[in-house]
Specification:
This protein has 144 residues and is an alpha/beta fold. The chain has 3 helices and 5 strands. Strands 3-2-1-4-5 form a 5-stranded parallel β-sheet, covered by helices on one side. The structure holds magnesium ion. Magnesium ion binds next to loops. The site of magnesium ion (MG) has 7 residues, from loops.
């Protein structure tokens, strides 16, 4: 039986799940990471500076390449603007019930830092032994 963690999981895209919207290299362990999220959180959203249209195209390409599960293509997309990824942009929840995985501190509101899990950016030369998504799984698994 599944026991979901009582949080909305918000995922950044560029630097977190993939290299960036241009090169679109998937981070090592991406498929497994997303399945872990899917099995442990009842709501997952994408919280990215990339437009929704671009995100959908990237997601379809990743799914076609077998890099992400098919459900990733239909992931809930968060519309937002401004300087920060204010978690209050996530509809129908409180910001205290959202966890954001993101590589960029400058997007995080000071008063929401407790809701943020930092992941180092996936950057050139895009190491194949990058283990950061597994490290995030370890952190998420400690949350009840
Ligand atoms: Mg990022």
């Amino acid at each position: 039986m599944l026991k979901y963690k009582p949080y909305v999981l918000a995922l950044d895209l560029e630097g977190t799940l993939i290299s960036n919207a241009v090169s679109q290299f998937s981070r090592p362990g991406l498929y497994n990471f997303l399945e872990y999220c899917h099995n442990n959180f009842c709501r997952i959203v994408i919280f990215t500076a990339v437009s929704e249209l671009s995100f959908r195209k990237i997601a379809i390409a990743l799914a076609d390449a077998g890099k992400v599960p098919s459900w990733f293509v239909n992931l809930e997309y968060i519309n937002w603007d401004g300087k920060y990824k204010d978690l209050c942009f996530v509809p129908e929840t409180k910001f205290t019930e959202v966890i954001l995985i993101d590589d960029r501190e400058e997007y995080i509101k000071q008063e929401q830092k407790k809701q943020w899990i930092y992941i180092p950016g996936y950057e050139y030369p895009y190491p194949e032994n990058d283990d950061e998504l597994n490290q995030v799984i370890q952190k998420l698994s400690q949350i009840d």
